[in-house]
Amino acid sequence: MKKISHMKKPAWVLGVLFCTLGIALCTKAGLGLSMIAAPPYIIHVKLSRYFSFYTQGMSEYVFQFILLVVTGLICRTFRMRWLLSFVTAVISGFALDGWFLLFGGNGVVESIAVRVALFIFGELFTALAIAFYFRTNLPQQVYELLVAEVSARYNLNRDKVKMVNDVSYLALSVILALVLNRSLQGVGIGTVVITLVNAPLIAIFGKILDKLFIFD
Question: In DSSP terms, which residues pair with 4 in a beta bridge?
């Protein structure tokens, strides 16, 4: 089978669309967001009580700006091109709010069967999106930038760094939920499941993408 070439730019677009779609579906499922999406969602739940304009998409790029600072501290440097990742975060934030507009809001659906299906598809879309992000030289979201830059800076395996990164976000999500909202809203059994399967799924999707496409 002939591979499809010139996929770097389409990979970036698909990464943005699939990642935000995955977050939107998992939010609607209400079984727990991914360890990455949970912190900005939890902050959104808290601040939207006081500021109605503070959307979940806005919370995403505000949180990623903080991560951008953390990336610089860990890598002990800062590159101007990293700011482009924040631009990607802003675009993704608007895309996320766009999905919610299409879905009629970010409220949880009632049917448990539909919620489970939304959760499964949401995680699959998210993992596929990150695999696409890793195969483009266009600006990634800050989540992926942190993993890529730390891996390169200290010559570490990217999939292993991703796993450690995800577990760290899980701990942060629990702490934020309890401190800010005195509940585990946004964190659930789904969050734990995603923490365990996210990195392996990204690696699997990555191998599939490499067989189908040429990212030149």
Answer: 213
Q: What is the pTM of this model?
A: 0.87
pLDDT band at 155 (very low <50, low <70, confident <90, very high): very high
Residue by residue, what is the 3-state secondary structure of the chain? Answer: CCCECCCHHHHHHHHHHHHHHHHHHHHHHCCCCCCCCHHHHHHHHHHCCCCCCCCHHHHHHHHHHHHHHHHHHHHCCCCHHHHHHHHHHHHHHHHHHHHHHHHCCCCCCCCHHHHHHHHHHHHHHHHHHHHHHCCCCCCCCHHHHHHHHHHHHHCCCHHHHHHHHHHHHHHHHHHHHHHHHCCCCCCCHHHHHHHHHHHHHHHHHHHHHHHHECCC
